[in-house]
Amino acid sequence: MPAVRGERQVTDRRFGGPGRVPPVGSGVVSNPPPLDPTADVLTLTRALVDVPSVSGSEGPLADAVEAALRALGGLEVERVGDAVLARTDLGLPTRVVLAGHLDTVPIADNVPSRLDETTGLLHGCGTCDMKSGDAVMLRLAGRFGVPGARPAHDLTFVFYDNEEVEAVKNGLGRVARERRGWLYGDLAVLLEPTDGEIEAGCQGTLRVRLDTKGRRAHSARSWLGVNAVHGLTGALAALAAYRPREVEIDGCLYREGLNAVGIAGGVAGNVIPDEASLTVNFRYAPDRDEDAAEAHVRAVFAQALADGATLTVTDNAGGALPGLSEPAAAAFVAAVGRPARAKLGWTDVARFAAFGIPAVNFGPGDPQLAHTRDEHVRVDRLQPAEDALVSYLSGQADRSPTSQEPA
Fold first, then answer.
1. CATH class held by domain 204-317
2. Residue 317: how many CB atoms within 10 A of its CB?
3. Is residue 19 pLDDT above 50, yes or no?
4. Nearest 5°: CA angle at 336, between 332 and 337?
5. Given this model, what pLDDT does residue 20 score?
6. Does the fold of domain 204-317 match that of domain 13-201+320-393?
7. 221-237 pLDDT, tens per residue?
8. Out of 163, 186, 256, 294, which one is annotated catalytic?
9. CA 68 to CA 35: how far, in whole Å?
10. What is the pLDDT of residues 54-92, one digit of tens each?
11. How far apart are CA 117 and CA 393, in angstroms?
């Protein structure tokens, strides 16, 4: 099926001369043509991937999504920065919020998309995390966001920016601050990559920077200096000896991890460095809150701190408990017909959980492929994810969420 409705003038003769729209997968698109929510989910995924949207540069893609949603005619649409919000207003007793981020990690020579028909894999930055989920959301909007549609629940669609960077920039956080009412509902489903499984809750993520100070000297007279890089030895040893915890909550197994993710130091090839830093990321189970996570990390590095290192928290976003005992979440699990498992990364279910709204992760991408150079999505995962949500949102499933006021 064509990925676009209508035509746009182009001058590149590779695409057949003026008056033709480039086919998806034919090249990087900086001025995207209109998106068609009635196109099949594979075509929509490719159209989204072919528009680069690294965190902070989502504007052109957000423009295309906003235009597509407004054209449907059955949605109230609002723009908040580069977040696009849309919702039905049918007066139904329950509301389901569907959310997905438009941004990706930096491109690794993997845009435009590439379809391998032999393996059934669609390659490209964002195919897994999470433009395939965004494509499913657009399909659902195209089905339930038109005049005359009769979903079983009122629906809210949230396409947002800056999820892949520090929490302070997160577009969903901005929506929560400026348009909080748009996020209220009886259940939130984030279409993060889960490989078609339901992943409950999420882990928290804490980033800290350990700094050491020394004294500069010529490397030929190193005894006159104090090497700040060597001062990180204790912290590195603590990391190497660390044994992460495994925690089972509501039948979901969360695996913690404490790892160095960056190191910096050095002045020149003949200078003893007087400054060095080590960046550490702690992924913690949702039974810890932000303060407990920070206290744990400080305890791990207690000796390094006693030896003169300093520790600065640069980012800390708490996790979310599975919440599977909530009726709305339990109803969704029953409708999909598969048991839930733990979400091992951080996702914005935590923001909904903070409002007292049950939230789960459910999307077609494989989370183990997220952020990799070989990122791809299995084509045979796309339609089943859409079908499961259509069944639930149309009321074909036997159970539905019970109404709940947000905290």
1. alpha beta
2. 22
3. no
4. 115
5. 44
6. no
7. 999 999 999 999 999 99
8. 163
9. 6
10. 999 999 999 999 999 999 999 999 999 999 999 999 999
11. 31
Sign of CA dihedral 82, 134, 149, 97: negative
Q: In the 8-state DSSP scheme, what is residue 18?
A: T
294's enclosing H/E stretch is helix 290-300
Q: Where are the domains of the chain?
A: 13-201+320-393, 204-317
Assigned superfamily of 13-201+320-393: Zn peptidases (3.40.630.10)
Question: What per-residue confidence (pLDDT) applies to 22?
Answer: 52
Strands laid side by side in the 275-284 sheet: 257-265, 275-284, 204-213, 310-317
Say whether the peptide bond before residue 112 is cis (omega within 30 degrees of 0): yes
8 Å CB contact between 62 and 160: no
Terminal-to-terminal C-alpha distance of the chain: 44
Whether 116 is a known active-site residue: answer no
Residues 6 or more apart whose Cβ sits within 8 Å of residue 118: none
Classified as helix, coil or strand, 22 is coil
Distance CA 169, CA 320 (A): 20
Residues whose CB falls within 8 Å of the CB of residue 396, separated by 6 or more in sequence, listed in order: 390
Higher pLDDT pick, 317 / 131: 131
Which residues fall within 8 angstroms of residue 394, CB to CB, at 6 or more apart?
Answer: 144, 151, 152
C-alpha separations of 240 from 244, 295, 301, 306, 404 in Å: 11, 19, 12, 18, 46
Cut 0.90: pTM above it? no
Between CA 99 and CA 173 the distance in angstroms is 12
| Confidence class for position 33, pLDDT limits 50, 70, 90 | confident
103 is catalytic: yes
pLDDT at 25: 59
Structure tokens at 143: 């089905």
- Catalytic residue among 50, 103, 134, 386, which? 103
